[in-house]
What we know:
six-stranded antiparallel sheet; 2 helices
Amino acid sequence: xAYDVKKTEDEWREELTPEQFEVLRGKATERAWTGELLDxxxxxxxxxxxxxxxxxxxxxxxxxxxxxxxxxxxxxxDAVELIEDKSHGMDRTEVRCAACGGHxxxxxxxxxxxxxxDRYCMNSLSLNFAPDEG
Length: 134
Ligand SMILES: [Zn+2]
């Protein structure tokens, strides 16, 4: 897929913190229960930490007790890119930012009790939260 936001790995390395780079460009996963956005409950929008594209609304965030910020759907279906991921001996679906290709996390079909049944299990490091004004 060709991304609208295209930068070299060196450019990303300069713009992102080392921790963000590891996740967004290296597909690392932050340790469970360590993410800054895990307990964020204010109304607002979650955007890609790499390129600023809007990805999730606060209203779709739910407490999944999995240790990472979880959402049941993206702000628009085309805001994220879903890619089959068979790494680490698991059969998972990787979620990337559709604008820049940055790794966000994975989506699992175990969002029990949510309108979609999906659980977008995201890294806090991949997201920037902007609370609604007022
Ligand atoms: Zn992005």
